[in-house]
Amino acid sequence: MSQSVAGVIWQRFTKSPIPFDMTLRHYLYSCALLLLLSCAKKDTPIPVEPIKPPAGSFTFTALKVNELFSGYSYYGLNASPVFKISFSGPVDKISVASAILMKDKDGNAVKTEITYENNDQTLIIKPLSPLKSISKYFLDIQTNLKAGTGANLNSAITVNFTTQVDPADKFPLISDDELLTLAQKQTFKYFWDFAHPNSGLSRERNTSGNLVTSGGSGFGIMALITGVHRSFISRSEGLGRMQKIVAFLKDKAQRFHGAYPHWLDGNTGTVIPFSPKDNGADLVETSFLMQGMLSARQFFNNPDPIETQLRKDISTIYNEVEWDWFRKNNSNTLYWHWSPTLGWDMNMPIRGWNEALITYVLAASSTTHGIPRNVYDNGWANNGSMKNGGNFYNVQLPLGPVNGGPLFFSHYSFLGINPIGLKDTYADYEAQTKAHSLIQYNYAKANPKNFYGYGESCWGLTASDDINGYLAHEPNNDNGVISPTAALSSFPYTPVESMQALKYFYYKLGDKIWSDYGFTDAFSLHDAWFASSTLAIDQGPIIIMIENHRSKLLWNLFMSAPEVKSGMQKLGFTSPNL
C-alpha cells in the first residue's frame, strides 16, 4: 500500500553472487594451470599428470550467451539470443528434447532450435521465433540430459535472462507541447472519471473501492483546477465537483482536533485505519489536503453566491485544524499522528528534511491555531541539523540525506509552495529541488549497480509500488525499479531531463506503461516487471507539476493566499512571490 516516507522502512537491497559450482571451478582452475605450465620454457620442463573429470561423470563445463559469459543472469538480450553450452563429453541427442527447456516467466515453453559442434560436446540453442521485448525467460538444462556413455548430467543448470526494449516508437510522434497536454489529460482521468462517486474524493489506488485518501484528495483537487484551466472540463463542472468534496469534508468526514485521517470511507466518512495505531488524525496528510483546498479557494474567486459560499466553507475547514494542539503537550515540534484510542502512541515527530515542509507552513499560516517560529526552527529544521552541503554525482545538495532521498521530498510540499527564488535561514529551495532532481538523473546515468535500462532517458526513484510490494526507492535503496512520477513531477526543476524521460516512457515503453489513467506506477526493465496500478499520490504530482512547469498555475494560486504569505514570512522565508 502507498504511504508517506515516515511509514516506510527503508530496506537496503543486497545481492549475493550466484555461487559457482565448486567441482567445475576446481576443474577449470586445473585446466588453466596446465595451460600455464605448457607455456613454460622448454629447458625447464615440469611434468604434470593431466587432470580428468572423474570416470563416468558427465558435467557442464562452459556457457556463452551471444559469445559472452557473465554468470547465469543476463539483461537486455536481443530477441534471438544464442546460447552455447559445453559439457565434459558428447551428448546423447535422444535425451536432449526432454532435458532442455526454454520457457517464459509463466512457465510457457518456447520452441528452440538446437545444433551441435565440438564432437557433440557443445549445444547451440536459440529460439525458433523472436522473443517478446522486455520479458523474462529461463533456459533449463536438467539432470536427465545424458552423455553418450549413458551417464546423467551431475547437476542442473538454469540461465535466466530478460530481453531488451523494442526501439520502435509505440505511438505516432507529436509535438512536445502536445505530449505534455496528453500526459496531463490522460492522468486527469484518474481524478475525474475514477473519483469516488459519493464524496468526490480520490481513491487511494485503482483497486481501492470505497477507500479514499485525504492527502491524495488534496492532489486531486489541484488536478481538478488544472483540468478546468486546460479545458478538460468546464468551470461549472469543476465547481460542482468541488461543492461535493467540500460538503463531504465539512459535514461527513471524521476529524480529530480538526485534522483528517489518512484514509476514509468514501460513503460514510468514517476513518479506515492506515495501520493498527494509525486510526485517527494524520497531520501531514491533512496538510496535503489543505494545500489543495486553499488553492481551490483562490481559484474559484467569482463573486457569485455559489463560489462565495465555497470559499467560506474552505476557510472554515482550514481554520478548524488545531495545528498548535499537535505540538503534543506544547512541545516545540509538531507530531504526525494522534489516535482517539491510543493518543500519541505512534510518537512520530515531524522533522525535516522530507515531504512535510507544507505542514509547518500551513501550521504557521493558521490565524486560529498557529504555531510560532521556534517550533519550525526546533522541530522541522532541528536547529539546522537537516543541512547537508555535500556533493553527490557532481551536484551540491543543501538539505537532507545522502543523495537526497526519494524524489517525493521535492514534490509533495512544492505542488503549492513555489521554490523558485525561495530562501530561508537553512536553504535556497530552488537550488535544493533542482539539485535533488539532478542527483537522481546523474545517478541513473552513472548506474553504479548496473541495472539494465537506466540512463539519461530512464531515471527517477521515489516511493511507489514495487516488485515486492511498496518501497521508498532512492539511490541508497535502489532495486532497479523506476517510478514515472519521479522524473515527470520534476519538470519545473529539470525540464530538459524530464522531457527526455517523458518521451522515452511514452514512445518506447508506452505499450507497457501507458494506461487509461496515464502512466502506471512503476516498472523494472532489469527484471522485466511492470506495475498495473495507479496511485493518487503518484498521479497527482505528474499533472500538477507539469502545469507548474508550463504556467505556474498552482504555485501562483497557493502563494496568493494571504494566510500563506504571512505565515511564510513569519517563518523567515523570502521570495519574489511573498
UniProtKB/TrEMBL annotation:
Keywords attached to this entry: Signal
Entry annotated with the keyword Ribosomal protein: no
Positions of the SbsA Ig-like domain: 82-163
Residue stretches making up the Glycoamylase-like domain: 349-561
Domain of life: Bacteria
InterPro entries cross-referenced by the UniProt entry: Glycoamylase-like_cons_dom, SbsA_Ig
Name of the protein: Glycoamylase-like domain-containing protein
Organism: Pedobacter steynii
